[in-house]
Amino acid sequence: MHILEIPSFFPPYGGHFCIDQSKALVAQGHVVRVIAALNVSARLTPKLYLRASRRPYDVMMDGIEVTRCEVRSLPALNKLNARRWCRMVQRMADAYVRRYGKPDMLHAHCCAWAGYAAMLVANKYGIPYVITEHLPKSIHERGFGSQGAQSWQIPLLRRAYENAAMVIPVAAELVDELAPYYGKAYRWTAVSNAIDTTFYAYKERPVCGSAPTVICCVADFIHRKGYDILFEAIRLYKEKHDKNIQLIIAGRGTDSDAMQSLIHQNALDGIVEARGQVDREGVRSILYHSRCLMLATRGEVQPLVLLEAMSTGIPVVSTEVVPQCERIDGGCFVGQTDNAASLCTQLYKALHQPHFNGKAISAQVADMASYDSVGKQLSQLFERVHGALKPHQPLAQ
Fold this sequence. Notes:
The protein is α/β, with parallel strands linked by helices. It has helices at 17-26, 46-50, 78-100, 111-125, 137-144, 153-163, 173-182, 227-240, 257-265, 280-288, 304-312, 340-351, 358-369, 371-388; strands at residues 2-7, 31-40, 57-61, 64-72, 105-109, 129-133, 166-169, 213-218, 245-250, 272-274, 292-294, 316-319, 332-335. Helix content is 42%, strand content 18%. The radius of gyration is 22 Å and the shape is globular.
């Protein structure tokens, strides 16, 4: 099949899952390209904002052909920004069709706003579109602002859901979570995000009695990731179980003054090593030097770092927001959200399993989330959807 990927956001604003799924589909023999319009923020990326190019340009990312352009976001004008972004995607899609011909399938990542833009393109060209939804309720709510369920966005996004050939949540729980906004009058099938299980390959960790017990957390320093609870849980574990514990943290903002202040407040000076933002090689190195990963998150759909950690052969500890698909027996330990004592208990269980088999945990992750597994699932889904539909008409519920 000829598949055109349309992400709602893209590096440097995250969204690398679009490239991961593209690679998974290419490996199954499909022709896959990406058009990525970036809503560029002056606050987050001032240099990119200043040099933003509204003229599309081509780049290669991990072997995937990507056409990018930048749209300067206007402060506090969310409705206008969304409209301008969708128009840019439509123009990019028009140019794409002139250049490569009509794709067989449009694959949008996140309904706001790639799903809506894909619907507009699909209506023009008579192409079915699917939406993979990655974003949790908390991020949707932040986008809706003070209007909440009365936001102007909801009727538009609901229409995009209902007219999609298929909605693909990365975790089944997302359907009920978003139902207050989008209802359930659409067809859906859950498919995990893909991770590079070859890169995050299993590795045996030798246990040395005198060496520190190294725990890690790879997450940006934002409230949702729960670093305040993580530090409290590590402090409790140190007091109750192991004075020789160490914590390595990495992610945007983890090397900030605010983070150092939080570390000091929890009396973890000398215990926590903050590495700041690291690349994927840096993430893998941290995982290979750790006994367990701990993520005290307050809101996720499918935290990929948990899968990456388990793929390398270590257990993970997280909170109740983790979807069932990630709760691998013996690999994923779940404590209560915003409860440091509960997470401390789960960390002890994870580190003191009598018959832990990291290699088997790694194999289970590969069965669910490897490029090969996800590529096959998406291929079967796309081919079934494409064969069953008249142009841009949804399947019956």
